[in-house]
Amino acid sequence: MNPDEFCTSDSWSPLTSASAYSQLAGVLGGFLITAIALLFDRKSREGVHTLALFSSAVLILMLDSFIFSMMTGSQVPTDGDRTGICAITWTQGAVSTGMLAAGTTALFGGLGWMLASHAVNQSVRSDPADIPSYSLLADLGGWLTFAAAMTTTLILSETSIDYLHFMFGRRPEFWLVAVVTTTAACVIVVDFVLVYLRTGSLRKSLADTEEPTHLALRSLRIATIGIVVLAIVASWLVVSLARFPKDWLTVPNAGAVMFVLFLTAVLPTVVSTAICNSVASTEKRQPSVAR
Question: Could you say which of 42, 180, 193, 198 would form a disulfide bridge with 47 (CB–CB 3.0 to 4.6 Å)?
Fold first, then answer.
């Protein structure tokens, strides 16, 4: 492994892309702050949990913007050993990409909840002929969430492969690439099934004008907590890498690489699946028993 001054690997440099990623994370975080302001007037249970999801997404996106900005200040010596600095840079870039993916999926997950909540609230006061329009709006929220989850899962799988390529100085073995790719495909299929079932359930509930629609939160709390944990642990890791033994990244150490991949792909994927499982749908209310 003989990196250049831009730590390029497989025609990709985390240093030259860090500035654009920092701006993207900052813009998304600013958009979420505006969305949070709109949610403060909502007193419903769904509004409170969406507010919590958005708040955790703001935290991870703002920290992510800072980390990418910090990466732009990395200086790779023109002569001497560049391996240690480039290994740190690639690790920071991989983990930060995972943070960006989790925050982006949370943004669209919360947006889906806002669309679905609006559709449910308006359908109660609307003419039955307008129900299909509100059902379409609710469906759109769910499938936007799936689109974000699918895209970020694919990006994280490729990021993981690129990270392994740099760390081991060669293309990963075919079986390892197959495992990463197959796992990502399975996650996408699971997310698709979850969104399909939950949007279908909500559509049927909206069409049934005789029974009120009660939205189920499911795994929204798990997604919120997962984002906060990822933001804290990932931020600590990327700013502490320089104090770790260099051999952990330059040899590299298998345990260290696996932990980085856990923060880069596994935990953000768990968060995105939890958000897909939390796509706005209905819950069954138990009938009250007369006493």
Answer: 42
Task: State the Cα angle at 140 between 134 and 143, rounded to 5°.
Answer: 145
Instruction: Please count the residues of the chain.
Output: 291
Of the chain, the end-to-end C-alpha distance in Å amounts to 76
Nearest to 89 by CA among 172, 170, 12, 11: 12
> What is the rounded distance in angstroms from the CA atom of residue 17 to the CA atom of residue 191?
29
Judge if pTM exceeds 0.85.
yes
Q: How far apart are CA 154 and CA 152, in angstroms?
A: 5
Distance CA 285, CA 105 (A): 29
- Based on its alpha-carbon atoms, the radius of gyration of the chain, rounded to whole angstroms, reads 22
- At 218-260, the pLDDT tens digits run 788 899 999 999 999 999 999 998 888 878 888 888 899 999 9
Whether residue 91 contacts residue 160, with contact meaning beta carbons closer than 8 Å, is answered with no
Of 238, 221, 207, which Cα lies nearest the Cα of 109? 221
Closest CA to 63 of 223, 238, 221: 238
Quote helix, strand, coil % in the chain, to nearest 5: 75, 0, 20
Q: Which residues contact 193 (CB under 8 A, 6 or more apart)?
A: none
Residue spans of beta strands (DSSP E) within 134-280: 215-216
The Cα–Cα gap between 59 and 117 comes to 24
